[in-house]
Write a structure and sequence with these properties.
This protein is α/β, with parallel strands linked by helices. Helices cover about 35% and strands about 15% of the residues. It has 18 helices and 13 strands.
Length: about 450
Amino acid sequence: MTRTTPSSSGRALTRRSVLGGTAALGAAAATGALTGCGGSAGASGTTQLDYWLWDANQLPGYSQAIDLFMQRNPDIDVRITQMGFDDYWTKITASFVAGAGPDVFTDHLGRYPEFLKLDVIVPLDDFAEIAEIPDDQYQPGLQELWTGQDGKRYGLPKDYDTIAIMYDAKALEEAGLAPKDLEGLDWNPEDGGSFEEVLRRLAKDTSGTRGDEKGFDPTSIARYALGADAGIDYTGQSTWSPFAFSTGWTFTDEKTWGTRFNYDDPDFQASLDWYFGLVDKGLLPPFGMFGDSSPAQSQIQGGKAAIALAGSWMIGTYANLEGVDLGIAPLPAGPVGHPVSMFNGLGDSISAQSEHQQEAARLVAFLGSDDAQEIIGRRAVVFPASDAGTAAASEAYESKGLDVSPYTDRVKRGETGLYPLVENAAEIMAIMQPAFDDLWMRKIKASEFTAYNDKVNKLFE
């Protein structure tokens, strides 16, 4: 789902009430207490496991799935703890230091390389229940993301996310466009292709002049074509990455665990100059225009933006926007000849401090099974990692009148680029964030990223 880099606010989440499921819900978010790694006994002498996650929207589904697990495994009692994204990582880190964390927890690709360094998570391949899971159980590429440099798996895929375009059909109609006009678009970093033509049509200045009409004032905008959240980071998951990927660019010299970044690549720099150059054209909000309280979905709802690139974990949020006639369109095809979305996913990891790793492995294996994945899928919150789970989610979205194929087609067709799975993620962000901010503020050109890239690559020497 999450998916922005873990040091920012993470996935855009909204708290929702817990519906259904009777698995015990921990109160760590409210009390700040740290529970021991399965050290206490559950009811009637059963083994108690602690399972942590951050996504409030997924809590009902996981409560239901874990209920089923406990029915089938009466010797294990599972306590679920959910807390907000930032609190979650603070408490996870503190729990490892104190030796009092969860047995199983939702892990993030931007975090687990550091956990590997610290030896606080265990390889999963040694557990029979997990080793028996066939390689084709999950969407292609997900297992690879959770495989360490030693060839062992440290997380079992639980869900995945891709990027597509969200829009309000009323905004399109008001601009004289129809949903089909957002299909089959092309893009290039020189002139933006037919995608930029649509953006110009959707933008409108305070006098009512559209971006493709004479007299349009890019400094006085009533509605931007493309919405943007408050921050844009070094992964650009739902901002610039689809454009850079569609030139054939990749983050690093290897698919995973690369040691040389490619922020000095001319295609990458041209893509960023085009994307952030939309500010000068009045098509993208300037840096600081909208804060954390006015994310892209609020801009769509308030008529401040016409369309937005959004991750699949945001489908429910957009679908619930009052007054918005939601539509979902595919990304434009880039110079490689087709769209390319970032491919990211979450996984379940087992703590090295857990006193009940065998029981924890049984829980992880179950959560990765079709039975559990279908339960999660039917909640229509995320796309579970397995084919069966994805199918259940697609059917659930369809029952709500939503065609989510612009998200799932990227995976089916292999039109994806991987999240940068590397060491030194925190240090990379510290180096690169000022560059992205300055580019958005129009203080620099993307060619200046070459010097920043050199600093990043020195981290791997």
